[in-house]
Amino acid sequence: EERSCLTASAGAELSAKLCRRHDINEGAAQPRRAAVFNPYTEFKEFSRRQIKDMERMFRLYDSGKDGYIDLMELKLMMEKLGAPQTHLGLKNMIKEVDEDFDGKLSFREFLLIFHKAAAGELEEDSGLLTLAKLSEIDVSIEGVKGAKNFFEAKAQALSSASKFEAEIKAEQDERKREEEERKHRRAAFRELKSAFTQ
């Protein structure tokens, strides 16, 4: 829908920016997003492990395997979490984070639930807050929000970047270890086999 945004004497570009900011605040903006969604760069406040946990949960309840959690899948999810919702309740839950207005949750919108919960942006009686609390994914954030000043925030950002690298390294080490174990098992199996074939 077109909304006439009048910002007198502002340049056209500034005016467009103000219009967009207004639309975003009103919840009427179509979000502009990069073609490829990268949860690790967009949701920096979560660790890789947390995002992986959320992804596992998302996949678990995306029973249609279409990359979305629709109303029925959300219904089932809330029942499994022990907090069944009414039809209207479910619709409202989706509406709270449904940025592209398609009536279902993409993985990005699913992450938004935890982002909003951690940032304290959900009402106490919000079904989404219930979902976040019951999901057993711990997303209590003290991050940049709690930093007293810019330099402290920078320091935290740096430490979270090195934490991120450490997590990646740990994952790689784990994979290496598994690969080594597989090699040993294969070698042992070959030895066993050759003992039998002699």
Fold-level CATH name of the domain at 39-135? Recoverin, domain 1
What's the name of the CATH homologous superfamily of the domain at 39-135? EF-hand
Give the oligomeric state of the chains in this entry, treating copies of one chain as homo and distinct chains as hetero: single chain
- Helix segment tally: 8
**Major beta sheet, specifics?**
2 strands, antiparallel
The assigned CATH architecture of the domain at 39-135 is Orthogonal Bundle
Topology, number of strands: 2
> Quick one: CATH class of the domain at 39-135?
Mainly Alpha
**Helix/strand structural class:** mainly alpha
| Spatial extent as radius of gyration | 23 Å
Principal-axes geometry comes out as: extended
Going across the biggest sheet, name each strand in turn: 1-2
- The topology string of helices and strands comes to HHHEHHEHHH
Please state the average pLDDT score: 82
The first-to-last residue Cα distance is 80 Å
Helical percentage: 55-70%
> Poorly predicted ranges (pLDDT <50, ≥5 residues)?
6-10, 141-147
Question: Proportion of β residues?
Answer: under 5%
Keywords: Calcium, Coiled coil, Metal-binding, Repeat
Pfam family, one: EF-hand_7
GO molecular function: calcium ion binding; calcium ion sensor activity
Coiled coil: 154-188
